[in-house]
Amino acid sequence: MEDNLHEWCILEYCHISTFIPTSNIYFTNLSKTAESTLLDIKKLQGVNFFTNHIIDLNFAKDKICLLDPSSKNILKPEDGNEFEYFLFGGILGDDPPRDRTCELRKHGFKTRSLGNMQMTTDTAINVTKRVVEDKVAVDQIPYIDFPEIKISAQESVIMPFRYIAVPHPNQSTLQTTTDELKLNLVPLLPEGMIELLKKDGDMAFEF
């Protein structure tokens, strides 16, 4: 893992700890700098941090599933019975993707895919959890692809990823022109992400 952890990475890692017990989260192949940074984050207390490569740790290789976008096998609920560990390579969410998984692919892990849409780290792990623990098929999870976020009355930003879709926390339904109610879905983002986007863009976001 790279030394320079971006703020959005840390927000995503903290988000992961809200739906995965920290004792079940492992970061491997960390630089000393990255390890020191992550150890100081209160929300990540209990997470397992290693500077060792995954291959050098005492995990049964046949119980590890590498989430690989190039895999021909889509992750299925029954995979939760076969595998104990689900491995995500590098920092997900690059646009365009930089195939960081290639460094892990060469070790011969069994692989599964979440589909052909690029996801952020927290989204990919949340989808995996919903499939193997909650037994929901990948294609049955609601998504928003490339959500558009307004940054002013005239401008907006398109986030180039797939996100899990959830009801808007303040207005879960909308009334259509035919007086029907429909779900008002928004992308599931880490706490603090909108504020970070505001700070980075020095603009007021409408969401």
Structural features, described:
It is a single chain. This protein has 2 domains: 134 residues, Alpha/beta knot (3-Layer(aba) Sandwich), CATH 3.40.1280.30; 59 residues, no CATH class. 23% of the residues lie in helices and 18% in strands. A hairpin with a 5-residue loop joins strand 7 and strand 8. Helix 1 runs parallel beside helix 5. It starts with 6 loop residues before the first helix and ends in a 6-residue tail after the last helix. The C terminus is likely disordered.
**What is the CATH class designation of the largest domain?**
Alpha Beta
| Largest sheet geometry | 3 strands, parallel
Which CATH architecture of the largest domain?
Answer: 3-Layer(aba) Sandwich
Radius of gyration from the CA trace? Answer: 18 Å
Which stretches are low in confidence, meaning pLDDT under 50 for 5 or more residues running?
203-207
Tell me the span between the first and last alpha carbons. 32 Å
Task: Look up the CATH topology of the largest domain.
Answer: Alpha/beta knot
Give the strand content: 15-25%
Look at the structure and give the mean pLDDT.
86
Protein name: SAM-dependent RNA methyltransferase
Keywords: Methyltransferase, Transferase
InterPro entries: SFM1-like
GO biological process, one term: methylation
